[in-house]
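Appendix B, Record 12. Input sequence as logged:
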Amino acid sequence: MPIPIVTREIDSPVGPLLAGACARGVCLLEFGSPERQSRALRDLDSLLDSTEGASDDPQMYLERLVAELDAFFAGTLAEFGVRLCDPGTEFQRSVWARMRAIPCGQTLSYGQLADEIGSPGGARAVGAASGHNRIAILIPCHRVVESTGALRGYGGGLDTKRWLLDHEQAITGQGVLFEPSR
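Logged structural output:
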């Protein structure tokens, strides 16, 4: 039996976000189309088993998430502390864990990330795992770029990825990575 997920829409400078939490933590923070959001919720329904884990109030996690996102977008928070519930394969979870370790304001290439988790030559697999990340911003797949530094694929769109990276550069006092288009 799937574990219940409580959802909430959150306004942000990069557009509306659909947040979701279960009894084990935040399990969803998704940009994009209603179809993309529905697919993420269906995936979670099939991955979350109510016979495992905690029985905390999901609203508690959503309230903390909103407070942390407000601080992040205000430029006063660089690291999130809300508990996450990120079901996936062992490989996906290793990719997501390494993404969470990339410091705010920094980037890593898909190939570097693959090397660091012991999967040399696994840049495409890292990209695929990134594409299955259902907790945007908190599992910062926006910090993963091509080896040339170029941006590639992002569920919220490349403009959002660029905005997030520039915002994090400002939070950490490093300037901007990308100059505005002329």
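The two ends are 53 Å apart (CA to CA).
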